[in-house]
Amino acid sequence: MANWFKSPQVLLQLALNSVKRFPFTIFSGLILTAVGMWSVRIGIAEKQYQDEFLSFLLRVGMTASLSLPLSFTVHLLLENNLHRNRIFRLGLINLLFGILIFVYFDLSSYQQSINVEERIWLRYWSYSVVFHLLAAILPVVNKKNSNAVWQYNQTLFLRTFTTALYCGVLYLGLAGAMLALDQLFGLEIKGHYYAYLMFIMLGLVSTLIFVSGIPNGVQFQDDNQNFPKPLKVFAQYVLLPLVLIYLLILYAYAGQILVQWKLPVGWVSNMILSFAVAGMLALLLLYPFGTNDRWIHNYSRGYYIALLPLLILLFVAAGIRIDEYGFTVLRYSLLALAIWLTAISIFMILTKNKYIGMIPFSLAVTAFLVFFVPGINAWSVSKRDQTQRIQEEFKKAGIFDGKQLKQGVILSDSASDKLHEDVMYMFDQHNITGLEPALVLPDMIANDTGKLVKTNRISTWEVKSWLSDTLKVYGVRDEYDRYNTIAESIEDPVTVDSDSIEVPEHILTISGSASSARNNLNIPAGNWKRLVLINPDKNETMFYGNGDDCDGLFMRIFDGNITLDYDGSFDTLQIKAEGLNDKYAFYSSLQKKFPNLENIKINKNTGYNWGNEGMIIQGKNSILAVHYLELKYSEKCKRFLPHKFSGMVWVK
């Protein structure tokens, strides 16, 4: 019985010791838990102020989670300098709070901009990478041998796995107990209590479990020769086989490139990075065993040599994407990572893998340069490069002259998609259009009621809608917008100056199918005053008539009050609409387009689906552009009759 009461006392004492040793880290975990639970509570209450307050809580929660590795590092640095004067210790603590305050306001500057979601999370993960790498190296940066670095990091590695296991088991066990109370005793435990429990585990409990297992003087284990055997087993029998599999695949792929002389696909970058991470992790875990086991020593020497040819492949794959699409934040980060891998591989080969501490240290320096140094960080480089590219694309399309945007330019679907995608990328990643000063994001936008609202107080979707509507003025539309606009009747004059012009592809979308087919129809020169769309509801409208008769087939489109009458006796297709009455030689036009039409013997019962070609039929005062037609064979008439139809009529 005494032992039963002793266990809680031991746990309590362990927790108190952890709080005394890592007060700022434990407090950060407590703040993270409180923020998570408060966010859940606000979501339940559905208060009017919840959006702004949740944004505030998000910034606080992000700062608190970033404080975990940073404050942990500071506490160990304070232990490194127990005999230093109080001014040094106070300065280190002030530096911690100064960095956290800067991080909070830096994240706030992102959140107060128009587009938040992706940009603020990228910024958060940038801080997280740097702070965790600093935690892996700063407490032991002054150690002269790599054993201290390895012993310290293997402790962190094991504590991470132990913490994840303990918290996972605790959460599942306690959540199961809550569910049992709910189901067996009818206590009606609501769903948000499970969310509360999750945040308690993620914030406070996981932090306590992690730091409680960090031994005193963990950063002073220069001469410790305690090398856990399970780590060797994990690296030898789990990681190494994975490394060898990746190595064989990548070298086989490199051989295929040399044989076929075919440039690598983009996905090969992920494979090479996975190989580099798995191989380097195995190398670090096996480091202390290399002095006694020859195969481990050979692996350590051969890994970096085997990595170098693959890095050439990585540079080629990254270079192709950058040359084709320009620098993005991720592509710039990929290129920087490739440069770092090359430098660290050469360094390790020359130093015979002696200074493993250089791996996290150099990676932390690289991450700091890539993410935070003004002018050369990923966002600055991507912003400059993509701005230059988007302006060149708009100039090439004839829309932009460097100062103003021009209306009335006809674009193909592919060009319109590309321009629209580029502008939206600039908005998503950099909160600009890339066409400044010709097109600048507004400070205020009118909402549904007509009231002006600050753009940082409305949704990203609303600002994107404004941006899409503005781009429409200059003929730049995305596929979704073109698909929704095809039903509209175009009343503006369409002037053609050359001998022939390719019809904008968005007008020629096949209706009634999930995928859109594109047809290039050439319209003869002329002043076309009106465009009437046949089948504006995007369903192939059917012809109706007298059974197998060749005559009397008609199609009535109520939207727009358009009627199509087919007269097989005179081979005419007559179109009637408000202010429009014209006839077309229909079947003879088909025969000109397809001389062997009557010899087609297939699908005579179900009809011939003719949807991948285009045809133009000239009328007296109009032109019929056919882009979807389904024909049905008539045994009585011995010919194909129109069954389903969609297209357009250009009117003079």
Helix-strand blueprint:
Blueprint: H1 2-21, H2 23-45, H3 50-80, H4 86-111, H5 117-137, H6 146-185, H7 191-212, H8 229-260, H9 268-285, H10 294-325, H11 329-351, H12 358-372, H13 378-396, H14 413-430, E1 444-446, E2 452-454, H15 460-472, H16 479-485, E3 494-502, E4 522-528, E5 530-534, E6 541-542, E7 553-557, E8 562-567, E9 572-577, E10 580-585, H17 586-593, E11 608-610, E12 615-618, E13 622-634, E14 639-651
Antiparallel strand pairs: 1-2, 3-4, 5-14, 6-14, 7-8, 8-9, 9-10, 11-13, 12-13, 13-14
Helix pairs in contact: 1-2, 1-7, 2-3, 2-7, 3-4, 3-5, 4-5, 5-12, 6-7, 8-9, 9-10, 10-11, 11-12, 11-13, 13-14
Q: Would you kindly provide a brief summary of this structure?
A:
The chain has 652 residues and is an alpha+beta fold. It has helices spanning 2-21, 23-45, 50-80, 86-111, 117-137, 146-185, 191-212, 229-260, 268-285, 294-325, 329-351, 358-372, 378-396, 413-430, 460-472, 479-485, 586-593; strands spanning 444-446, 452-454, 494-502, 522-528, 530-534, 541-542, 553-557, 562-567, 572-577, 580-585, 608-610, 615-618, 622-634, 639-651. The strands form four sheets. Strands 5, 6, 11, 12, 13 and 14 form a six-stranded antiparallel sheet that branches. Strands 7-8-9-10 form a four-stranded antiparallel sheet.
